[in-house]
Amino acid sequence: MKKAVLPVFAFSFALCFTSCEKNEITKANYALDEKNSVVEWKGYSPDLYHEGSFSVTSQNIEVVDGKVKGGTFTIPIATVQNFDLPEEVKPVLLEHLKSPDFFNLALHPNATFKIINVQPMVSPVRVQFRVPTIL
Asked: Residue 13 falls within a domain, yes or no?
């Protein structure tokens, strides 16, 4: 009996080590191309909407095996732009967005977002944030 157990034990031990291959995981951190990266926005009211963009900067974007897994990016509020209004009235909207009534640029010059979960989406990829209305 002892003779039969030893070869089985040795075979199991060898099998365990040969089947325990290490899969190489590639991991890298990237920064956004700040000159070519923007966050586009579309703001709605009951009667109309406006569209524009913000510049975006990043501290890091973590990529594991070719997929984004985490990171952070920052939106400088002062970079807000509007696309749909005539030039003569654009400053009115932009100053309102920077005012204490909206983003409050003086107290909150940056909005920082942390990526904690990434899920595949159908193209084009869009991120949508919904903020509850406070009455």
From this structure: no
How many domains would you assign to the chain?
1
**Amino acid at position 70, single letter:** G
CATH number of the domain to which 89 belongs: 2.40.128.110
Determine the structural domain holding residue 39 and report its residue range: 25-115
Handedness of CA 64, 70, 71, 73 (dihedral sign): positive
Mean pLDDT of the chain: 80
CA distance linking residue 97 with residue 81, whole number of Å: 10
User: Does residue 123 sit within a domain?
Assistant: no
Task: Give domain status of residue 128, yes or no.
Answer: no
Reported as a single tens digit per residue, the pLDDT across 38-90 is 889 998 888 999 999 999 987 788 989 888 888 888 999 999 999 999 999 99
Q: Which of 67, 60, 6 is nearest to 34 (CA)?
A: 60
